Amino acid sequence: MNAQATDLRRTELDVLRFLAFLGVFFCHALLRHPGRLESLRVAGSFGVCVFFLLSSYLITELLQREKSNFGTIHLEAFYMRRGLRIWPLYLLVVIFDYFFQAHVHPGVFTRSHLLALLFAADNWYVAKHGWLLSLSTPFWSISVEEQFYALWPFIRKIFCRTTCIIFCVIVFVFAYVAMEYLCHTGAGGTTNIWVNSFVQFQFFSVGALLAFALRGRTLLIRLNLRLLLFLSGIAIFSFTGYLFHINETLVHPPFHSMAFGYLLINLGCISIFFSILGAKPPNILRPLVYLGKISYGLYVFHWIALEFGSHLIVSYLLKNHQTTRTTTVVIQSATAFVLTILMASISFRFFEAPVLRYKKRFEFIPTSPADSSNSKPAAPQLPQSKTSDPVPSAACVA
């Protein structure tokens, strides 16, 4: 296996984004129909961990390149990019959910829950009060991600590479210290350990360590080995979901079981990551590249689509027909999946894309192949700040 330089914006990583979302969708679709596939449902939830690792890898690589090219990291620009990418659609759904629940289920969606969502603390709210089934239910993971990125760019800006690597190792180790404490106090596997920021930060630390180790390169891996890595990752996820009961509401889960299970999840995430990184998706997979591009919208809307599919299929279309449970699940999930893609596509085309065009004003690093010919990226002019650098034409993800 040899190494080669890589652009930050890679189409194969869009495919990985979609596959991670597909696992989450599969998990939430089966959540409404528990049964023999419970371990596979739990395995699908680990797609969130893949999201965390991939996001950290990409953003750490972006911060690395910005610091290398400009000698510093422009925190104002980073947080503007981050805010414009995440918060417009997020706030739209959260506010709609609040008023919708007030009309349909008065008193269920409390103001304290709304404040937790607005201040990116929904996972802590879940840990204290349990799960509230609403349109914003999956947003706990967005809270975890925003909490990490409130800290990580600042750490990378002020400390050297070696210190940041040490910081990532400490974050990883502390995840298991926090896990041991939670297990000792009898915390639930789903309502406390799974949503705990310190536990989930281990996947961000692994993603950052991968970015530091690869230094902008990717490994040249043969196709048969990539397939083996991918299948191994899926097998690890399935084995972990079946044997260690990660992401299940267990009282007094044993620490050794939780710790070994989470270590296996990391191994599965890394295996799947390297199976995709540097690959060249064939034309037949181009639709998956597009779906990965709109994966944020897919994640935001999939729970809404599943709720709609559940009511439409189960309560209306199938109430007068004798159908098997498997048929019901398949029809409901297929309907929700198509609806999710439709909603995410419309959102990206008419709502997110216009916002992302404004986001380019705060971009520094060329990340798409079309922009890689620029030998020296230029800095954008930040609002209400002075800079002597010209405005770039580069496109960037952050």
List the SSEs and their pairings.
Elements: E1 2-5, H1 11-31, H2 38-45, H3 47-70, H4 75-104, H5 111-118, H6 122-129, H7 140-158, H8 161-184, H9 189-194, H10 197-214, E2 217-220, H11 223-243, H12 255-276, H13 286-293, H14 295-317, H15 325-359
Antiparallel strand pairs: 1-2
Helix pairs in contact: 1-2, 1-3, 1-13, 1-14, 1-15, 2-11, 3-7, 3-10, 3-12, 4-15, 5-6, 6-7, 7-10, 8-10, 11-12, 14-15
List keywords for this structure.
disordered C terminus; single chain; 398 residues; globular
What do these coordinates show?
The protein is mostly helical and 398 residues long. The protein contains 15 helices and 2 strands. Mean pLDDT is 86; it is low at 368-379 and 381-398. The chain has one domain.
